[in-house]
Amino acid sequence: MTQQYARLTDSQWDEVKAYLPISRRRKHDLRAVFDAILWLTRTGCQWRNLDRQFPPWKVVHYYFSKWSRDHTLETLNDAVNRRERDLLPERQTTPSLLLVDAQSVRLLPRIGQDRGTDGGKWINGRKRSILTDTRGRIWRVEVHAANVHDGVAGLDLIYPDFTGQLPRATKLLADSAYAGQFAQTMTRLDRVVFECPVRDPAQRGFVVEAQRWVVERTFAWWNWYRRIVKDYERTVENSAGFVLVANIQLVLSSITNLSPYNF
């Protein structure tokens, strides 16, 4: 991960542009728009203070909101995840082992939509549920009020049937918060085994759980993307959109390092 934001290289833009509507002429270049979204995600800048090297903030906000709603960012995120895995030795295009977890974050005070208090962590805001592979790459993200139980919020990660997107999925790991309704729903997916790691009662203090620590590392990576260390978005679609953009930026950087070509 780079310490400082760098604009898209030509080869990185080639990975992105196939999933954006670049066919017709526009007043503002979509490459500059997408660069602005990446920059804002990394720096945490307010929309109205967007750097002047980019198109006007209203233009960038329009495209970001549109791509968050119409699943463009989801499609792009899926594509770059697959592209990265294709470049890795002994990896298939999609993962077979998946992990689920959730993180509650504070929400900007003046926003009341999709807001709640996580009683366990005493966080007034929203809950972000993610589905990752064993590299910590995000394949799906859903955002709810923080008072929604982890297992209930996680149901949106597997509906509609996530095996259509991830056909090689055979096992899904989660903690005990998902042992109820979520686990019951998973039993209907005959070919996907659901597991909750069981902790040895004799162990005391913090214990690293096999594989599941990867999700916690993903949450830690988010500290590099200042726009998502707190939820500033009025809509859950935009909130999820910024999480996907952070993952896209991380994966594009990885693709640059993995590719045999000069990026």
UniProtKB/TrEMBL annotation:
A GO BP entry: DNA transposition
Superkingdom in the source lineage: Bacteria
InterPro entries per UniProt: IS402-like_dom (IPR025161), Transposase_11 (IPR002559)
A GO molecular-function descriptor: transposase activity
Chain ranges of the Transposase IS4-like domain: 94-245
Domain Insertion element IS402-like: 8-76
Pfam families reported in the protein's UniProt record: DDE_Tnp_1, DUF4096
NCBIfam families tied to this protein: transpos_IS5_3
Protein name: Transposase
Organism: Neolewinella aquimaris
